[in-house]
Amino acid sequence: MNHIERIFCFCLLAILFCLGSKPPVGAFGPTPFADDSTELLQKMDGTVRHFGDLSRQIWEFAEVGYKETKSAALLKSDLRAAGFQLEENVGGIPTAFVATWGQGRPVIGILGEYDALPGLSQEDAATRKPRASAAPGHGCGHNLLGVASAFASVAVRNYLAEKKISGTIRFYGCPAEEGGGGKIYMARAGAFDRCDAILTWHPGTRNRASLSSSLANITAKFRFYGTAAHAAGSPEKGRSALDAVMVMNLATELMREHVPESTRIHYIITHGGAAPNVVPDFAESFYYARHPDMPILDGIWARIVKCAEAAALATETRMEMELVNSVYNLLPNDALTALLDHNLLRVGGVRYTGEEQSFAEALRKTFTGEDAQPLGSQESVQTPEAGHGSGSTDVADVSWIVPTAEFNTATFVPGTPGHSWQATACAGMSIGRKGMVVAAKTLALTAVDLLTDPRQLEAARASFDKRRAGHEYLSRVPRDQNPPLNYRDQ
Amino acid sequence: MNHIERIFCFCLLAILFCLGSKPPVGAFGPTPFADDSTELLQKMDGTVRHFGDLSRQIWEFAEVGYKETKSAALLKSDLRAAGFQLEENVGGIPTAFVATWGQGRPVIGILGEYDALPGLSQEDAATRKPRASAAPGHGCGHNLLGVASAFASVAVRNYLAEKKISGTIRFYGCPAEEGGGGKIYMARAGAFDRCDAILTWHPGTRNRASLSSSLANITAKFRFYGTAAHAAGSPEKGRSALDAVMVMNLATELMREHVPESTRIHYIITHGGAAPNVVPDFAESFYYARHPDMPILDGIWARIVKCAEAAALATETRMEMELVNSVYNLLPNDALTALLDHNLLRVGGVRYTGEEQSFAEALRKTFTGEDAQPLGSQESVQTPEAGHGSGSTDVADVSWIVPTAEFNTATFVPGTPGHSWQATACAGMSIGRKGMVVAAKTLALTAVDLLTDPRQLEAARASFDKRRAGHEYLSRVPRDQNPPLNYRDQ
Amino acid sequence: MNHIERIFCFCLLAILFCLGSKPPVGAFGPTPFADDSTELLQKMDGTVRHFGDLSRQIWEFAEVGYKETKSAALLKSDLRAAGFQLEENVGGIPTAFVATWGQGRPVIGILGEYDALPGLSQEDAATRKPRASAAPGHGCGHNLLGVASAFASVAVRNYLAEKKISGTIRFYGCPAEEGGGGKIYMARAGAFDRCDAILTWHPGTRNRASLSSSLANITAKFRFYGTAAHAAGSPEKGRSALDAVMVMNLATELMREHVPESTRIHYIITHGGAAPNVVPDFAESFYYARHPDMPILDGIWARIVKCAEAAALATETRMEMELVNSVYNLLPNDALTALLDHNLLRVGGVRYTGEEQSFAEALRKTFTGEDAQPLGSQESVQTPEAGHGSGSTDVADVSWIVPTAEFNTATFVPGTPGHSWQATACAGMSIGRKGMVVAAKTLALTAVDLLTDPRQLEAARASFDKRRAGHEYLSRVPRDQNPPLNYRDQ
Amino acid sequence: MNHIERIFCFCLLAILFCLGSKPPVGAFGPTPFADDSTELLQKMDGTVRHFGDLSRQIWEFAEVGYKETKSAALLKSDLRAAGFQLEENVGGIPTAFVATWGQGRPVIGILGEYDALPGLSQEDAATRKPRASAAPGHGCGHNLLGVASAFASVAVRNYLAEKKISGTIRFYGCPAEEGGGGKIYMARAGAFDRCDAILTWHPGTRNRASLSSSLANITAKFRFYGTAAHAAGSPEKGRSALDAVMVMNLATELMREHVPESTRIHYIITHGGAAPNVVPDFAESFYYARHPDMPILDGIWARIVKCAEAAALATETRMEMELVNSVYNLLPNDALTALLDHNLLRVGGVRYTGEEQSFAEALRKTFTGEDAQPLGSQESVQTPEAGHGSGSTDVADVSWIVPTAEFNTATFVPGTPGHSWQATACAGMSIGRKGMVVAAKTLALTAVDLLTDPRQLEAARASFDKRRAGHEYLSRVPRDQNPPLNYRDQ
């Protein structure tokens, strides 16, 4: 597609998505490329190595959610050195922080994450080689995520300072995205309240601004307490907690036919009894439920809880539910996405050296899935698509508070599965760092646009108001629930 | 075994059963055989043909529970002719009646039944030949049951009249034993209240007085009401009543491990949805639960009801339970059983003619089970055994109100399965009638013993008091529930 | 929307649906309205009453699938009178027939149906009044369906004859659409083989040509055979067929999470045991599975069969599957739909008299659903939408053999639920007949277009070839399976 | 009961148990009490303190199954010092050994065990005080078991040596009784093959020789392997191993109704998925099945395996079964039990000091069960009872190879629950040691009887032959399966 076609298609999608909408937000066209921005990009090229090193250090730390002490310290130190003011221990989380520079409106935020995933330790090699057995690894590339966002924040700060432009740039250090819901507790503490727009990105296998939503998610552990008894000697005296888990699971399975098609319910049994010859007096399931729309998810969740209560009733056991985490569905922002798409096109994709090409080819040999994404696609930028992905993220909660948009860059070899050792490998070597630079530049350009062109912010706000219309944000995590700082402990 | 051994063994069993009991009731030995009783038996021989004809007529009527209009009328007419006073429509049941003769205490009752079983119509032939397709038949031999009891009642009446002995003999016309629970409603109406002892028998494959109990039983239909929806178009709008049936069944199956070993729970699904393309808004299960002890059964039943409630809760349906029937576990009476055993031995077993032997041999070829009961065993009388059978009967409810005992005679060829066309065949021909005469004579002798020897009644009462100690009879059928007069309608 | 907008939107949809397609078939625009066609419509007005009467007669016959003897006879008689040649007993079905007029190519077919639905008998009144208790009724309006198609066929015949145009018009008398799959057996007999295009319609609540597909469907009964035993006496000797049904159902429920989202699986239990005190030796489930794509459905169905086999294995029972019916997903035809849309717009919607308006208002008071379709919408014609409906139809099988298209007209008051007594009522009175006339006229205009403009047929063929590309039609109904002529018997 | 009554009752039980048997084995009465045996007992009193110390050391070692290195070494050292010949590493098990003294027939064996139970560490105190958190403890009193058996072996050796009696006494050091099945592998190695009789005992809450059997047992892990997939993104690509576990469990639960009443089936889920957002590709259940009769258990087990196979079939997963352990039902020996009962009566029960009485009273306050066993009952000896317990033991496998009998002594305060911290406490203090001395003396007296009175051995053999008649011993543990030496590792 040429450029005109791209714009046409994007408009078309926006039309279809916002059926009956007024002139599409963002459609008056983003700010034309300024000389200033060229200069900005050139200056960023000067610190690529420095930020690349940071990303490798955090990749080596490989700290899991809420335990990202060294990773957070490294980023804080770098931002402090660049003149940012730090608010630490945000929301009672030791590794959450906000770094702010500048003054007055607008306030533009950029989200950064830096938590690793258990069990995904891997060398920066194209074959499976854990750096440490069963240790965590950056299989989601958050080492790149946090650093690119910091990189962009510093670049924007320098630009504002140099050009003497008023306004505020803010970096959000967000821990425990992977199931810990760090942003929920930061949001509860008001960290996002005085922001005009928020940008973020995520490592990926392609370059694309996102118009897509994510699934609202509620997760909880259902614990059943029964009565132990010798399973051969007096089973009639026992009340099996495992029976309760099975009744709950089955009732939920029967419910599957009677929920909307886009619902997702999945669970594991985390405790299924201690010894076969004892009627289990404790058993536990861990449930996730998801839907593109939080209020509908609420109704589905209430029915899952009924299944759990019914299981306790039928088996004469006692049930306790611990809500572990809950995130919203992401609210896409048409205007911000158009702007990100525009800037991403300007920055362009990722080109491999011969060595990187060889690495990519070798790595692709380890892929088992049937992914049609061709090698080479990392060089181009793809058109945003509406819809909703199949994942869930705590970025979604932010998107209900502030106009927020997201994009991906090709930090991973095309076709790399998510949360894989292959992703860890890419995130630790030059391919990952190249994608990271694309991200940092796109973030910086977009933040500057938002800081300098009030129409862009207005459009973002209009987009936000339109999509959020009639709904209020209220996290399903109980207000008295503390961040699960030890959720990664065994 | 010789006679001494028999008595020894019987005592032993009684000892074991009533551990720590005082001298076993009945153990002082039954009344020695009187000349009078020889005369009684001889006189009965004179009316064997008459009562045989009655049994054949009722066999041909083959009327199911609560619909035994002609059968009851026939028996009433015969008893009225013999001078009995009739109380009709007992407990609001058109085919229930009490026929009484004599005056004053003691009052000895004999139970009679006359309901047939659906689908067991059969000629009196040794090969499968229904008299009418899918019609009822006397596959439990109740045509013999009712008539032998009436035969005995008339014989006792004649004896009392002739010997000018005071006391009362009473025949109970009891409908719908097969699942209709007729005696429960007769008991509720007080029909058994002023009786000193009650005797009954049941057609069988051997001759034996019974020390055995039966299983208390509660039966109910669980009905679930959901929300219909097009199963392809909007399954998410449906709430499946069939899902509820499945959850209830599964929860109950999981409960099986956690009830006492001698519990029985069984069910069918009587309504499992109307059309596959509609989410079922109605579904129904029919449950039986049994245990040798009613209070324990109560606890088990309460848990089944919880499973049903849980199923409704989990599936967002509504549950209604209709208690269909409930009978007690039978309270054996050691003294009465000893007396029945004594008289049954006196009367002796059943001897076949050559023709009957051929019939028996032919019939046994149609048996598929692995029954060790040999042909010829119908000639002897077997020793009572304690324990409990696997069936349930409404005679049990009577046994908690009045000292009651029961015995079997070999009306069916040894090895005949219960509720079979083979049993129907036997009940309609000479083999059945021979067993019936053994029963009538045993009943008559025993009733006379009870009417003339106060020590026997005292022992029966002591036995009754000992076993019932600490428990009160209270039928689990709700007091406001009417006899299910149409329970056999489809 | 004005006319230009409509055309634009339609094109847009076609573009989106056939991504990357060559110039949309049908998009060169349908034949401009000819004077001839005005004349055709005027002539049809002259026989509206006659065909209205026929529709009422068939409404009164209300014959269920494969039993439509009088209904088929009436239509045959009318078509024979108009000079059509009749082929009867098509595919071995007494009520299936093909009526043909003319000669040579092209051959244009029009499908007609005339089966009623059990239990939906109703007067032509706005309140629930069955004409006969529990009797069938035309709750799907097939009385209108068959007659409109015959009406159109006769009109086309007259037009061809008068204008001396060569070509063939053919009416297909198709029994048992409602679950009997009549067209499958007609197709197997080659009835649709020499046709160039096929048109059909269906009574509805709106006027709209259809671009939508339907769900491929396989339905079967799974029968399990176990071993009976007394459920209290010797349950360990029994092997429960009901257990097998439960295992199968549960395994299938667990599978639900692991099939594509647009799959539909639904079942009822058609036999769940005979008596609670007998371990069931027979039990039966009736399953439907559906998916928008037949080959994918095949894979899902194979897994359901595995669940059934597993259930037999686990419960030591025997399983038999009887495939009851199977229809394909409908293959929409973009060119034919464009043509139908064009002609439907020309004919226009349905206008109510004051009396009809009152009837409609009264009837709508009996609707319980939350249908947004407003009263008055019956007057306009709506734009086709792609996608797939939630139902299944044997028209789909025809659509894989011949280019086929379908449309709806507002024979029912807007908001009328499908398969309802309200639909029966409408189908028997003037509102239904007005919609029927719209249908007949649209069919006639379109058939004439196809008979006279070769470009239209070419476009239809191209559309067909494109969508069917790479797939062959092969009914999943076994070749040796006869039409289930008695499937409506109880 | 006086002594005559006891003998009478015992005979009666034997009669009942061996219905139709010839004169009960052992019933000619055990050897009258000899002066020599009085001397034997007196000499044993001289080493009570020594063996008490050993038992306390092993109690402190508290080593779990197959890890009883120090415990076995201590016993070996003591027996070697007493002149026994040691065969070590029996059956390839480092902690299994056989210690033999003497020569020629008869050969009398005494079994000793010494493994502790995980998590039952406890001080010798009447309130809960673990010696080490979550550490093992002798909650089954095997520290007493092994030492009493060694104590008796040494006493018998001394007696034989002193009296110059020929014959052989043998101590079996048997590891891992608690679920490790040590004796199965010792038996496979032929360790019990040349023995004439084997005696053993078990710590308990009463003094009683055992006529009771135990349950045959088969245990296995069922492992299912499916296909992982993102549970929200592409659940349709996953095949859930947890689904397979659920189908297997449910099928087995439905089977429960259809196995003999005395069957026991119990299971836990040992692995129920790794993370809720991933379709589990691995899941595992751990099953036990038991029945009083091994061939019947085989049939039940085959059906459980079918349920597992069916689960794999229905869910498109793969199943692997690992048989973990299997023991026989114990074959009681009437003659040996009669002899043990006789000698146990001679030795008498356990008398508490004031301090022990206080300890017992305090400990009983921590009991929650409703045990009717009164304090004081430890002083008397109770009559053997037939039947079968609810547990399983690898002593059973020995009992099918050699005439074997067992008894209990009151090493635990009456009412102490099995496998409890209270049992650990008793096993470590004087109450446990008193019961151990009763056991050692009874074993010694009985072994001497068997070594000196050939009639006793003949009776034991006759008893053995009668009960085993027609059955051959063949362990269900595969011959190529090694002892699970690390089964207690986490």
Summed up:
By secondary structure, chain A is of the alpha/beta class. Chain A has helices at 3-17, 35-45, 48-61, 69-81, 142-163, 182-188, 241-255, 294-315, 334-347, 354-364, 395-399, 421-427, 430-452, 454-468, and strands at residues 85-88, 97-103, 107-113, 167-174, 197-204, 207-209, 216-225, 264-271, 282-291, 318-327, 381-382, 404-410. In chain A, 40% of the residues lie in helices and 17% in strands.
Helix content of chain A: 25-40%
Poorly predicted ranges of chain A: 1-33
Helix count from the secondary structure assignment of chain A: 14
The rough form of chain A would be described as globular
Word description of this protein:
4 copies of one chain form a homotetramer. Chain A has helices at 3-17, 35-45, 48-61, 69-81, 142-163, 182-188, 241-255, 294-315, 334-347, 354-364, 395-399, 421-427, 430-452, 454-468; strands at 85-88, 97-103, 107-113, 167-174, 197-204, 207-209, 216-225, 264-271, 282-291, 318-327, 381-382, 404-410. Mean pLDDT of chain A is 92; it is low at 1-33. In chain A, strands 1-2-4-3-5-12-6-11 form an 8-stranded mixed beta sheet, with helices on both faces. The first copy, chain A, has 490 residues and is an alpha/beta fold. The termini of chain A are far apart. Chain A is built from 14 helices and 12 strands. In chain A, β3, α5 (142-163) and β4 form a beta-alpha-beta unit. The B-C interface holds B 215, 219, 230-235, 242, 245-246, 249-250, 264, 266-277, 279-280, 283, 285-288, 290, 389-392, 418 and C 215, 219, 230-235, 242, 246, 249-250, 264, 266-277, 279-280, 285-288, 290, 389-392, 418.
